[in-house]
């Protein structure tokens, strides 16, 4: 059951190689760990605080 703060695709934000897991998405520099940024064509955007970083 999905509740507030639940992301059903969180498993796609990590890449697993053997026993090591690495993040495949950028983390928001303002919000910190646990908040991933959305990947757009020419920018990264945080859905929580609205921070936008252009490529």
Describe this structure in words.
With 55 residues, the chain is an all-beta fold. The chain has a domain at 26-55. It is 0% helix and 33% strand. The chain has strands spanning 14-17, 20-23, 37-39, 43-46, 52-54. The chain starts with 13 loop residues before the first strand and ends with a strand.
Defining key terms:
about 0% helix, about 55 residues, two-stranded antiparallel ribbon, about 35% strand, three-stranded antiparallel sheet, mainly beta
Task: Quickly describe the structure.
This protein is mainly beta and 55 residues long.
Q: Report the average pLDDT across residues.
A: 88
**Arrangement of strands in the largest sheet:** 3-4-5
End-to-end separation in angstroms reads 36 Å
Shape assignment = globular
Based on CA atoms alone, the radius of gyration comes out at 12 Å
Helicity range: under 10%
């Amino acid at each position: 059951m999905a509740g507030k703060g639940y992301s059903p695709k969180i498993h796609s934000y990590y890449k697993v190689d053997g026993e090591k897991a690495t993040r495949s998405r950028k983390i928001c520099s303002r919000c910190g760990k646990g908040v991933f940024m959305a990947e757009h064509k020419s920018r990264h955007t945080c859905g929580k605080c609205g921070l936008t970083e252009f490529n």
